[in-house]
Amino acid sequence: MRSMPELIGIEQARRLVLEAVSPLAAEAVGLGAALSRVLAEDVVSGLDVPPFRSSAMDGYAVVAGQGGDLPVVGESRAGHPFDGSLEAGTAVRISTGATVPAGADAVVPLERVEVTGHSVRVPRTRPGRNVRLAGEDVRAGQAVLGRGDVLGPAEIGMAASLGRSALSCALRPRLALLVTGDELTEPGEPLAAGRIYSSNGWALAAQAERAGAVPALRETVPDSAEDTRAALERALAAADVVCVSGGVSVGPHDHVKGALAELGVERRFWGISLKPGKPTWFGARDRVLAFGLPGNPVSAMVTFQLFARPALLALQGADPNATRAQAALAEPVERNRAREQAVRVRLRATSAGWWATPTGEQGSHRLSSMLGADALALIPAGEGQLAAGERVAVELL
């Protein structure tokens, strides 16, 4: 039985993963399909927003000055500007968002006027009141979105306000997901003696989707060298990233590492000073990245979050460290002498920042420890415990 090499730390492992990433190419994506995609261009406005002076209120456009009774000479409503120039001593009825007529420099709200027939009585008004200037939000030539931005509702709305119907976005990484084990049964099937329902494939697929990946292949692989090699060969040919759950430790039925070596995947590391997640494996063949994740459910999810997810983000040009933050421990946490720990925690926002509370028992087989977890608290190795109130790095889920 082969022993594991010297273990490396979380940060060194993440660095080795990110060094192996070659960002993917870009494609044009319509706004309707752009939510959560990653921009592959800087978006510069080609126009002022708003493109003209507009009214901030429903009311009357006037030339600022002394109040009085003013004849109403027309109307400016959204999409239908007043045709002409406003002269002092007259008023134009105006709607919110409508063009302020030439000559006018203020808008009096409806609630501050008295309407009598075709005239309106307005109070004394200062220039600029309730008038939105052209370019007040965005100026022509201004960069408003940047390469690497993840597109949310506001970003898509901004692109639309600039007249963009499509954006250049990074391709979504193709992910092949293999779960190994003779004991695995798909949910919904009868459960025979000695077997368990397969959860890793479903949990990891959901994590991958949240990270922007698209499924290229997904299989359950028996614990045999031949089946493992054949499945990995298919996966490497189909995907930008391959994730295998199980089969990466030192047992007699762990065939993943040998199969990857036979298929020309260069190992970058095997073994992390991490609890849970010690036997994690990572390598690459040309531009394809391969992750060998542990088979225990929590270990698989934790190592995917810490190592595979940053790779998927970096492939798309997004910031792989955007999910890192700091939080204070709400209760003491025992340290592990030899290994860093990824403790599942719930976060509570306070005026002093986030406070992190462990979700309960933290065994790597306890998938229930992930329920309700907002983050992984990264606890350094060492003696004793970290006291309540100590600040630690957290990886947001």
Written overview of the protein:
α1 crosses α6. This protein has 397 residues and is an alpha/beta fold. The protein is elongated and about 95 Å long. The chain is built from 6 helices and 28 strands. 18% of the residues lie in helices and 32% in strands. Strands 7-4-6-5-9-8 form a 6-stranded mixed beta sheet, with no helix packed on it. Strands 16-13-17-21-20-18 form a 6-stranded mixed beta sheet, sandwiched between helices. The longest helix is centred in the C-terminal third of the chain and has 19 residues. It folds into 4 domains: 159 residues, Molybdenum Cofactor Biosythetic Enzyme, Chain A (3-Layer(aba) Sandwich); 50 residues, Molybdopterin biosynthesis moea protein, domain 2; 79 residues, Beta Complex (Molybdopterin biosynthesis moeA protein, domain 3), CATH 2.170.190.11; 73 residues, MoeA, C-terminal, domain IV (Beta-clip, Beta Barrel).
The helical percent reads 10-25%
CATH first level of the largest domain = Alpha Beta
Low-confidence sequence ranges: none
* Protein structure class: alpha/beta
Q: In the CATH classification, which architecture of the largest domain applies? A: 3-Layer(aba) Sandwich
Q: What composes the largest sheet?
A: 6 strands, mixed
CATH superfamily of the largest domain: MoaB/Mog-like domain
Mean pLDDT: 94
State the total count of DSSP E strands: 28
Estimate what percentage of residues fall within beta strands: 25-35%
Number of helices: 6
The radius of gyration is: 30 Å
